[in-house]
Design goal:
Layout (H helix, E strand, L loop, with lengths): L4 E10 L14 E12 L7 H10 L12 E10 L13 E12 L6 E9 L3 E6 L3 E6 L7 E4 L4 E4 L6 E2 L4 E12 L2 E7 L6 E2 L5
Parallel strand pairs: 7-12
Antiparallel strand pairs: 1-2, 2-4, 3-4, 5-6, 5-11, 6-7, 8-9, 9-10, 11-12, 11-13
Length: about 200
């Protein structure tokens, strides 16, 4: 069976302010305009838009290094030239397509806030925007915090009210994104003194 495929060409960033005027600078949400080459099998003759949508939907919420993040939605799909092309004896129909893509992108060094959902002596995990997983190893937690076995929490030596436990929001810094067989997560750090329990915006 001939499978559909897609390769991204030039990627041009567009302003995200048109989607959310109240988004702070440094927002992880980026609206991209993609110019792409899409190959569809002959079965999609007469219904190319359905083929594009099926192909793109299968890529949602999967980390794509070409985009620098995770595609969340596609929109405004347009075929250039209004028709596909065939090369030599190849059965696929080749289209040049442009589209908008909303991407969740977290470059190294970005400061973010997340909510703790797991605490152990070896690491903590949290969710950003209620959906994206972050893992912070114990050697990336500021030394002012020590793990308390009795309460299963990391407690601050400088402020007794500052405790890293489930449900607490913390500030962290992105180190890198790991992508393993389609399962991806953000590796974070809270080593810097101005990172940790979110008591006030940084």
């Amino acid at each position: 069976t001939t499978m559909a495929s897609l390769s991204f060409g030039r990627i041009r960033a567009a302003s995200v302010s048109s989607l959310a005027d109240d988004s702070p600078s440094g927002s992880p949400f980026r609206l991209l305009t993609l110019n792409s080459t899409v190959c569809l099998p002959p079965a999609y003759i007469g219904r190319s838009m359905q083929g594009f949508e099926e192909l793109l939907n299968a890529r949602l919420l999967r980390y794509d290094p070409r985009l620098g993040g995770v595609p969340l939605t596609y929109s405004d799909i347009k075929i250039k030239g209004n028709a596909g092309r065939v090369f030599n004896e190849l059965p696929e129909l080749i289209y040049e397509v442009s589209m908008k893509c909303l991407v969740f992108a977290t470059p190294s060094g970005m400061r973010m806030k997340g909510t703790i959902n797991e605490v152990t002596a070896g690491h903590i995990t949290l969710l950003v925007c209620g959906a994206f997983q972050v893992s912070i190893a114990k050697d990336q937690i500021n030394e002012r915090y020590t793990f308390d076995v009795s309460s299963t929490a990391w407690k601050s030596s400088s402020n007794s009210a500052e405790t890293i436990k489930i449900g607490v929001e913390v500030w962290f810094k992105v180190l890198k994104v790991h992508d393993k067989a389609g399962a991806w997560f953000i590796e974070g750090s809270m080593i810097d003194d101005n990172l940790g329990v979110a008591q006030s915006p940084i």
